[in-house]
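User: I'm new to structure prediction. If I give you an amino acid sequence, what do you actually give back? Let's try with this one:
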Amino acid sequence: MAREKRLEVACLGILVADMVARPVDEVPPPGELRLVGEMGLYVGGCAANTATGLARLGITTGVLGKVGGDALGDFLLRALAAEGVDVGGVVADPAGSTSASIALVRPGGERAFLHSLGGNGTLLASEVDLESSGPAPILHVGGVGLMPSLDGAPLAELCARARQLGMTVTLDTAWDPLGRWADVLEVLPHLDYFLPSLEEAQHIFGAKDAAVLALRARELGARHVVVKMGARGCHVLPDGTSAGLDLPPLRVRAVDTTGAGDAFCAGFVAGLAQGWGIVEAARLGTVTGGLAVTRVGAVSGLRSWEDTRAIYERGNV
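Assistant: Good question. You get back a string of structure tokens that encode the predicted 3D arrangement of the chain. For your 317 residues, that looks like this:
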């Protein structure tokens, strides 16, 4: 079936079914049962979350990734399609399983995860059809560190191919439980915008300070760098500059920080799609990232373009 509109952004990466439980003070010892206030199934994963945020902001968006032939895969595809996200680029492996996480949310909103790689762990570069997206003007990669069959050289070649097709390439990392942090270094020369979290950048580059980390990322090939710092906002280092800029966060009461970084990326990439500069796009990212933490689930707090732009203009919810 032909698309009604050409995609503005293609989101490549991890698609995850998130079971969120809150509040969780501690994990019970073996054999015991503890009650939590609520538990629910949500769309999760960097690519799915960012694509959903972009769609809510009015950006025509599709996802490229892999799910299994199971109920969780069906849930993700239905939920994404209901948000207006094009799922034509998703591979469904009938013999495979869908990636899933159990998110344990503490009373203050911070969370810990139990994760199964599922289809994300077996996604191959040969299964990613960039041309099927149009190609879209922007390729956003989300979830580096949780795609062991794609991370490293295969992803570097894919990003290089995307730029040859005229796509602007943005990339967001994820926590790498396998410790292969250096894999992303191969990809940096093929990125227009590198968007790691502070904690992930610290593991990749071995420094602590966001400004130092951003400079190292650019020295290794990334054109523009934005380091997401959660409740501290973000650090922006544009191409051609030696000193970055710290932007403050949107002040909100955090309920669940799940997906806040992905929501930041949605705002940032939406700004790029609108033709905004890196600083203005990063400010929009602080708004969408802040909104994400006000509700349970990675995408529940995200809003329309009109509502989000109004909050951007006045600087508060």
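You can read the tokens as a compact description of the fold. Here is one thing that stands out. The chain has one domain: 9-28+37-309.
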